[in-house]
Amino acid sequence: MNIHEYQAKDIFTEFGLPVPGGTAVQTVADAVARAEEYGLPVMVKSQVLTGGRGKAGGVKFCPTIEDVKENAAKILGMDIKGHTVNTVLVTPAVDIASEYYVGMLIDRNSKRVLLMASAEGGVEIEQVAKDTPELIFKETIDPRFGLLDHEAMSMGMRLCPDDIKKARQLAAAMQKLYQAFMASDASLAEINPFIFTPEGVGHAIDAKVNLDDNAMFRHPGYEALRDLEAEDPSERAAREANLSFVKLSGNVGCLVNGAGLAMATMDLVKYYGGQPANFLDIGGSSNPEKVVNALEIILSDKEVKAILFNIFGGITRCDDVANGIIAATRQMDINVPIVVRLIGTNEEEGRALLAATDLVPAETMDEAVKKAIELAG
Amino acid sequence: MAIFVDDSTKVVVQGITGRDGGFHTGEMLAYGTKVLAGVTPGRGGQMFQDKVPVYDTVKEAVSEHGVNTSVIFVPPFGAAGAIYEAADAGCKLIVCITEGVPTVDMVKVMPYLEERGVRLIGPNCPGLLAPGIAKLGILPTSIVKEGPVGLVSRSGTLTYEVVYQLSAAGLGQTTCLGIGGDPVIGTTFMDAIIAFNEDPKTEAFVMIGEIGGDAEEQAAEYIKAHVDKPVVSFIAGQTAPPGKRMGHAGAIVSGGTGTAAEKKVALEGAGIPVADRPMDIVPCLQEIWKK
Asked: Is position A222 annotated as part of the catalytic site?
């Protein structure tokens, strides 16, 4: 789950990272009230779950109340890469003398948390990684000991070789970031940039955190951080029904058991010149209720002109799945053709059940995909 | 022969009294796998299907039956705890089927396993099936066949699809292994490939990858340098949009890396054919095998 800058900063503040104060607001009047409270100048920053906010004009320096009014009005409601701005963060502006990048992520290769830091702060780190990878310093963190003092300090000194006070502040920030990362079950946590004022005081002025969906059960409070307005309504319905679903823009609705097979099915639709409407992993269950939920979500997309079931009955039995599909289609009023491909355990029984319906049977994945594309027109 | 299992594999199932654990233990027993004990805390003293004694701890199962392998079916919040327990009790192979384990838990578990020389398969995986030898996990036995092909995959049902096609074409398997779709997993593609390469019974193998990470790219480099056996591959997720998690926690294209196209280029650059469609995998393997 991706969260907003102001939410990430709340987590950072909880772990003692030096974050300038700030408040998230939804109206111009509230933005002005906060600016008056903090004192000028302030920054007005759009809160959307995408990068490139600054370039899009969604982050503004405001030296006067007039600027706050004007910019808040402009930014609220703005569209940034398809995301509508509903919230802005009003935060005291700080003078920037130097900028650094400090980030942590799960490194699949070392199977550890990887600390990355660079003196090239404030810009997109992916670009730095591509163009000048030698400017990013890395350290894998042993989870038994955490980020040790000497590791953090040597990283701080690589970033600020001539200023021990700044190196210490960076080292402390890295250790706190690691604590925040582990305690919040993050999959990514970035301070970009961490800045120093001309007086040498460090601040984390931007924050990005992605949280691990698998760990939500032990962070009941984090569910409230989810931006429901930023979520596609069908993806939200799928999440609430415990289905893995991603909306795409095509016309062939796909219901598949298993994530790998679901991806391979989408790929095959595209291979034959069709356009998949979605990714959907219905899981191992043949429960008709789950099939109904999945069909409702897919059919809420009016672009969908045909539906394709691709089910590999391993442990799940094909006759159970066939019964589930039949029960679901009886409960619903469905006006698009449905192609069903069942293979594996009890496939013959499953197909026999389907023969008595107007569902379109297919034997192979290839055949099923071609039929679905043809029926979608 | 197979990889990671043999005739000495003796199994304890953690979570044996749960719905999934119980069902799949029955399937493993039916395939002839030596499931000698089960563990569910608080259920010690019971018998599973009148055949398998249940204990409160893995330690008891090890001391009573000499089990060396654990298959884990406990819910996500207890999965890491179950892995620590199995490793502490002396199991050398742990297969964690559980889906939805927090990644930070897996990061913490790894050094504990490395220190004790324990191999973990998974989590979030279908496990391993060595036809004629043992089934550790949930792969369906009806589709496998004994033979010379190894198969390693990050996915579940897509693996079944490919195994089904291999068996239908008369190509049996030494071992079918699903390593799991999470970002941090125990046994990696690389581990499986090294094992298949060293296994004298495995004459050729298939690698089913998907978007996210760079495990396929690393495997490609290794195969190019060290493997003479025929290898073919398939990568799922060519049409996946960036930044979206495609079911598996690890299946995500982030920062423009981990795409199917990149993986295909790396594999083909290493001389490994990448099938365009799942149904092309078997013909592709047959073609390069002949040469």
From this structure: no
DSSP 8-class letter at B159: H
CA A181 → CA A6, A105, A177, A227, B99, distances in Å? Answer: 16, 9, 6, 20, 22
d(CA B245, CA B29): 35
| C-beta separation of B220 from B266 below 8 A | yes
Interface contact B214-A109, CB threshold 8 A: yes
Enumerate residues 6+ apart whose C-beta is below 8 A from B19: none
Q: Say which DSSP state B133 is in.
A: T
- In this prediction the ipTM stands at 0.93
3-state secondary structure of A276: strand
pLDDT for position A300: 92
Residues in chain B closer than 8 A to A244 (CB atoms): 245-247
At A172-193, the pLDDT tens digits run 999 999 999 999 999 999 999 9
Chain segment A207-216, per-residue pLDDT in tens? 999 999 999 9
**Residues on chain A touching B239 (C-beta within 8 angstroms):** 248, 263, 266-267, 269-270, 276
Query: What torsion, rounded to 10 degrees, do the Cα atoms A52, A56, A58, A60 define?
Result: 100
Q: Which residue in A has a C-alpha nearest to residue B157's C-alpha?
A: A258
- Annotated active-site residue in A99, A120, A139, A190: A190
Q: Which residues of A touch B102 (CB under 8 A)?
A: 185, 212, 214-215, 218
Q: How far apart are CA A191 and CA A5, in angstroms?
A: 10
Q: How far apart are the first and last CA of chain A?
A: 36
d(CA B122, CA B249): 13
Q: Which of A278, A283, A268 is nearest to A298 (CA)?
A: A278
Give the pLDDT confidence of A246-289 residue by residue, as tens digits.
999 999 999 999 999 999 999 999 999 999 999 999 876 667 78
- Nearest CA-CA partner of B175 in B189, B195, B157, B155: B195
Nearest CA-CA partner of A105 in A144, A136, A150 = A136
Question: Is A190 annotated in the active site?
Answer: yes
Q: Closest partner residue to B213 among A108, A259, A312, by Cβ? A: A108
Closest CA to A54 of A150, A123, A128, A101: A123
Measure the CA–CA gap between A377 and A306, rounded to whole angstroms. Answer: 9
DSSP B240: P
